[in-house]
Amino acid sequence: MRKRLYAVGIVTILTMICLVACSNNNKVLSSESTSSLGAKTETASTSEKDTDTENTYGWGDNTGGRRVYTIDEINNGMLGDTIVFNSIKDDDSTLSEEERAEGVTTPLTDERSFIGIRDVATGNRGKDNVWNIGKVTIEEGKTYIVRMYIHNNNPKGMNAVAKDVTAQFILQDHLSNNEARISGIISSSNAVPSRIWHTLLLKSDDNRPFTLNYVKDSALLENNIFKDGISLSDELVSDGIKVGYEKFDGNLPGCYEYACYLTFKVQPVFD
Predict the structure, then answer these.
(1) Within the chain, what is the greatest distance between any pair of CA atoms?
(2) Are 189 and 165 in contact (CB under 8 A)?
(3) Beta bridge partners of 58
């Protein structure tokens, strides 16, 4: 049986069981719950650029471009014992009418684009939140929330624990053309690739220069344990922090049950 997910706010919930190790002990939230995160994005990432080059955006990794997998390929054991992060590319095209009626969906249609941004003022619409990726226009006087999705794709659960899992955001402003970038990096010592990233490129509609101001104490992690969110160190937006499932020890089991979202707020301050 195919594995399906409820996108009920920030936590993506495994609800349909397949014959893989992660199918046990799933914790399900109400499909009517809401949160600051959803499952959709507005545009597509366009390139595989390194985070060290100005005015580039898109996804990449330290192997030069990882392959992607469908949910069926994952469930059929294609990964073996290999730990892989954010490498599922699938959509809702094969959902049954019953599943659609229940609100079942996939969290991201392309997990390589795992960073998104949206205007806080749009309000919390749960699974209907729209997240912008790629090249994004921002406005003066607004506050934005930035999201990172972290998913160990191996379906073997506690028998496929990623080690030393670290999440990091890098904010860069005053680039050429008065643009700025937000890069998210996920690393793990036993994953292949061991380092993946996704970058957004930000600009104003009138091409004015601006500074990205991180909102102190705004970083949160949400998963099936911390359903209402738990505060994270501000080091998330500097040197990075270790993440995990029940505690921040750098250990993250495989499969959707253990996936998490990290968020923080940022304000553009125009010169």
Answers:
(1) 56
(2) no
(3) 199
Residues with Cβ within 8 Å of 132's Cβ and at least 6 positions away in sequence, in order, are: 41, 42, 43, 116, 117, 118, 200
Give buried/exposed letters for 186-221 (b at 16+ CB in 10 A, else e).
bbbeebebbbbbbbbbbbbeeeeebebebbeebbbb
Q: How far apart are CA 6 and CA 12, in angstroms?
A: 6
User: Tokens 């899992």 sit at which residue?
Assistant: 165
Q: Secondary structure of the chain: what % helix, strand, coil (to 5)?
A: 10, 35, 55
Mean pLDDT of 194-214: 95
- 95-129 per-position pLDDT tens digit: 678 767 777 667 788 999 999 999 999 988 877 88
**Pair 79, 153: CB distance under 8 Å:** yes
Question: Is the predicted pLDDT of residue 9 greater than 80, yes or no?
Answer: no
Give the pLDDT score at 29: 25
pLDDT higher than 70, residue 255: yes
